[in-house]
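Hi L.,

As promised, Peroxisomal acyl-coenzyme A oxidase 1:
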Amino acid sequence: MCMCVCSLVEIAAKSIQLELQRRKSPEDAWNNSAIDLVKASDAHCHYVVVKVFNEKLKGIGDTAIHSVLSTLALLYAMHGITKNSGDFLQAGLVSVPQVLQISVRIKELLSQLRPNVVALVDAFDIHDKKLNSVLGRYDGNVYEHMFEWARRSPLNATEVHESFHKYLKPLQSKL
């Protein structure tokens, strides 16, 4: 990951140098290289988060918590690679088959994390109202809340939605 960051920083630096050689002002050179600079910045931030996350994992003694958080850290790192796979491919750090394998591995990691998702979300202390989801409820009454949410939905205010009468029924009469 660090190599990709270095590669993107190098690309951004070369872009600025090229703009300066074209007799652009330093401000214009910087602005014209903004896309490369943002990509390098995003990659650097992702790298730092992964690095710090892994350093903090060393201090966790509870093996169950360490296992879940290690899986989460790996998922975050791999998500960053797939999200920016073009940059990793361009830098020659991964091959297309490796990118495809990472996608498969991400699905495996998601399956491993699934039993701990509610606990992970709860650990961030994000309130149900902010989550705005019937699935991640703190009280665990998922089905009751799903039923209540569906009952209150404007789509269920009438037996047959008005869009049927407006769009589908006229088409049906032409058949």
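The two ends are 59 Å apart (CA to CA).

Thanks again for sending the construct details.

K.
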